[in-house]
Amino acid sequence: MSYAASYALYNYALVDPSLGPSVYSNLRLIRAFERGLDPQSSEAGFILTHVHMVQETGPLVAGAISLLSAVETASADIDTARSAFQNMLAAMEKIESAMEAMWSHSLPKDYISYRTFIFGITNQTMFPNGVVYQGQNNDKPMFFRGESGANDSIIPLLDHLLEIPMPKNPLTDILVDFRQYRPKPHRQFLSYVMSKAAEVGVREYCSKNRELALLYLKLLDHVRSFRWRHWLFAREYIIKRSTHPTATGGSPIVTWLPNQLMAVMDLMEKVYHDSGLGQAVEMQRQESKVVEEMMTNITEQKIKLDKEVRKYCQERGA
Q1: Which domains does the chain show, CATH number per domain?
Q2: In angstroms, rounded to a whole number, what is the distance separating the alpha carbons of residues 264 and 40?
Q3: Rounded to two decimals, what is the model's pTM?
Q4: Which of helix, strand or coil describes residue 280?
C-alpha cells in the first residue's frame, strides 16, 4: 500500500477549499479502516498529520535547488547559500512542529488497531511465502512492503543534499529498498539531488566557511531531531505495545531507525570537529551556546539510544 499514492498523501479532502491544507482542522480523510472517517479518530490524526507536514515542503525543495546552484557556481559571496539554508531551516521548523502534533492527533494506544490493515508482505511472519495474485506475475508469489512514513521524501532529500553517509549493512539496504515505493517524480528528483550534491561537493563547500558550516550543522540537527522523534513514535506506539519484531514497512522494529539516527549524529560530531566550530572564537556568544547545547544533546542522545536499543533487543532476543 503506497504511502504517497493511496493511504496518505493522496487521501485527503478539504472542508473549505479556500483555506487550503495549511489549516489542520480543514483536512478530512477519504479512505480509512478503523473509524478513520471520524476526523477526531486516531487513524485520521495519524494520516492527516503526515499530510499537514508534507504541505510545508515547498520551501525545502526550493532551498535544496538553490543551495546546489550556489555551490556549483561557487560565487565569491555566500548570500545565495545562506538564504537557501535559512529557507530550509524555516521549513523544517514548520514540518517538525506539525510532526510533534502527532501526539495529540493520534493516541499511541490506538495505533495497533489500524496498523493491522497497513502491514505489508515482505518479512512478515503471516506471509512467509509471499502472496499470489491470480493472473499476475505468472501466478508466482509477490512480496511488498507495508505502508510506511519511511516512503516520504522529506528526510531522504536532506540525506542526499547534505551527503549523509549511511553504514553499509542490511539495515541500510532496507532504506534503499524503500526508494522504489515512492512516486516516479520523487525518485527522479531525489536521485538528481544525490548525484548533484556529490558532484559539486555540498558538504566540503560548506565546511570551508564557518558561517555555512554552522548552518549546515543546524540543518543536520533537524534531520537528527526528526529521526529522534520518529524513534520515539516507534517506541511509544509500537515497541511498548507489541512484541512483533517487524515494523509496518517490513524493517526490524528495534534496530532500523537507530541505524540512520546514529549515522546522522556521527556526522554532526565529525562536522563539528572538522570545521573548527568548537574553536570558533569569532562566533557570537548566543551562537556558541547553541552549538554547545546541540553537541551536548547529541552525546546524551547517543548514550540513551544505545541503552534503549540494547534493552529492547535483550528483551526480545534480537
Answers
A1: 3-316 (1.20.58.480)
A2: 35
A3: 0.94
A4: coil
Grid coordinates representing 19 are: 483555506
Nearest Cα residue to 87 out of 63, 52, 107, 120: 63
Residue whose grid cell is 491544507: 21
Residue 250 class from Cβ within 10 Å (0-12 exposed, 13-18 middle, 19+ buried)? buried
252 φ, ψ to 5°?
Answer: -65, 125
Query: Please, what's the b/e burial string for 138-149 (b: 16 or more CB within 10 A of its CB; e: otherwise)?
Result: eeeeeebbbbbb
Of 46, 51, 42, 6, residue with least CA distance to 24: 51
Residue that the C-alpha cell 542522545 belongs to: 301
Q: Model confidence over 154-180: pLDDT tens digits?
A: 999 999 999 999 999 999 999 999 999
pLDDT in tens, 216-272: 999 999 999 999 999 999 999 999 999 888 898 889 999 999 999 999 999 999 999
What stretches of the chain adopt beta strand conformation (E)? 12-14, 27-29
